[in-house]
TrEMBL record:
SMART domains: OMPdecase. Pathway: Pyrimidine metabolism; UMP biosynthesis via de novo pathway; UMP from orotate: step 2/2; Pyrimidine metabolism; UMP biosynthesis via de novo pathway; UMP from orotate: step 1/2. Substrate binds at D207, K229, S320, Q379, G399, R400. It comes from Dendroctonus ponderosae. HAMAP family: PyrE. This is Uridine 5'-monophosphate synthase. GO terms for biological process: 'de novo' pyrimidine nucleobase biosynthetic process; 'de novo' UMP biosynthetic process. Keywords: Decarboxylase, Glycosyltransferase, Lyase, Multifunctional enzyme, Pyrimidine biosynthesis, Transferase. One of its GO terms (molecular function) is orotidine-5'-phosphate decarboxylase activity. PROSITE patterns: OMPDECASE. Residues 201-415 form the Orotidine 5'-phosphate decarboxylase domain. NCBIfam families: pyrF. In the C-terminal section; belongs to the OMP decarboxylase family. In the N-terminal section; belongs to the purine/pyrimidine phosphoribosyltransferase family.
């Protein structure tokens, strides 16, 4: 494209942008629209972010590159729209990073249904030119004859894009009681019911090394949590005698016992780790975590292991640790497994609002703390409010914010209130 043409195009887009209110940032749909968005950014001074089609497997590994703040209003720029699918894919990734999207500016609307599809998905399209207008201009300039104009009209009439199904539900907008009716995993169903009845989405990470301290903490904060998460192999004085009193406390205060084992091995080994050995996890933990790196074998092993029939798995799709090697492709592959094991998988451990159209699954998000943003070992923290309203968490995991508090009960009550209020504002905006 000639330098003069680019400037003219940028000027035309800038004029159109003036009619769009509250734009904070720009994003060109990859990859053809990137130079157009860059020209507009330079012309207006508006900052720009770049969306990658696939996250890098090195460096930041982000899909969205650039400087932005959660809640920024992002204007999408595209060259040509047929169905609008590329814009919707871009919008989804931007929204997963906390950006808001309501408008898109395009150079050419091919008039094949894209504008309507975008409108149904909450995006208003502003087009500089339609294909019919382009044909009219070319005809008046004697560049094409009337036969070509008629052929294009006929083509458009016969080749409308079928509407892209709009998600009928967004799990973030549904109540836990409504979602309990949709849950196929029995532990997920019970968790939804506990969360609703106790008005808590707080999972306590009881990462303590003394058995008595774990029991005392569970007794004190039990009324304010929906689940108690353990790393049972760090308990210095573990004996099987810890389990019965822990189960009794969980039953009395109505919360789920959850062993964060993160199973990742061949199926036979996982089955033994889950049901045998010193800890006999399958006999007392209703929930466990697992990596998907070994594929279906891990899930088959847990599903077929002896122990309680009420069992649920949280698959690890994203991590809260700085420098995690989990890629976008790995996350997507993990989510695919949830559709194959709906009666076993209770939910997904992640840091972003994934699987919005599957309210039967629970999003569990670790790394929640009121004051601190990180620790010296790479753990990243989110505030209770942001983890629910921006990150999409259904259950928030809090550890040291409670276990290291001067008054753990008061801390648990505060987290419970903050998280529940955020949930209420999410379903009743």
């Amino acid at each position: 494209m000639h330098k003069f043409q680019k400037k003219t195009l940028a000027n035309l887009l800038v004029e159109t942008i003036k009619g769009v209110k509250g734009v904070d940032i720009l994003c060109g749909v990859p990859y053809t629209a990137l130079p157009i968005a860059t020209a507009v950014s330079l012309q207006t001074g508006l900052p720009m972010v770049m969306r990658r089609k696939e996250a890098k497997d090195y460096g930041t590994k982000k899909l969205i590159e650039g400087v932005f703040n959660a809640g920024d209003q992002c204007l999408i720029i595209e060259d040509v729209v047929t169905s609008g699918s590329s814009i919707l894919e871009t919008v989804k990734d931007l929204q997963n990073e906390g950006l808001k999207c309501s408008d898109a500016i395009v150079l050419l609307n091919r008039e094949q249904g894209g504008a309507g599809i975008l409108q149904k998905n909450g995006i208003k399209m502003h087009a500089l030119l339609t294909l019919s207008q382009l044909m009219d201009y070319l005809f008046k300039a004697n560049c094409i004859d009337v036969q070509v104009v008629e052929k294009v009209k006929q083509y458009l009439a016969e080749n409308q894009v079928p509407s892209i199904p709009t998600p009928t539900v967004d799990r973030r907008k549904l109540s836990f009681l409504d979602r309990a009716q949709l849950a196929q995993n029995p532990v997920a169903k019970r968790l939804f019911e506990i969360m609703a009845s106790k008005q808590t989405t707080l999972c306590l990470a009881a990462d303590l090394t003394d058995a008595t301290e774990i029991l005392n903490l569970a007794e004190k904060v039990g009324p304010y949590i929906c689940a108690l998460k353990t790393h049972i192999d760090i308990v210095d004085d573990f004996s099987i005698n810890l389990i019965d009193p822990l189960k009794e406390i969980a039953n009395r205060h109505n919360f789920i016992l959850f062993e964060d084992r993160k199973f990742a091995d061949i199926g036979n080994t996982v089955q033994l780790q889950y049901s045998k050995g010193l800890y006999k996890i399958s006999s007392w933990a209703s929930l466990v975590t697992a990596h998907s790196v070994f594929g279906k074998g891990v899930l088959d092993a847990i599903q077929g292991a002896p122990g309680s029939e009420e069992k649920g798995v949280f698959l690890l799709a994203e991590a809260s640790a700085t420098g995690s090697l989990i890629t976008d492709a790995y996350t997507k592959s993990t989510l695919k497994l949830t559709a194959e094991y709906p009666k076993l998988i209770a939910g997904v451990v992640c840091q972003n609002p994934l699987f919005l159209d599957n309210p039967a699954l629970i999003q569990l998000t670790p790394g929640v703390k009121i004051a601190q943003t990180s620790d010296h070992l790479g753990q990243q923290y989110n505030s209770p409010e942001s983890v629910v309203t921006e990150k999409g968490a259904d259950i928030a995991v809090v550890g040291r914010g409670i276990t290291e508090a001067t008054d753990p009960v008061a801390a648990a009550k505060r987290y419970q209130t903050l998280l529940w209020d955020a949930y209420l504002s999410r379903i009743n905006p």
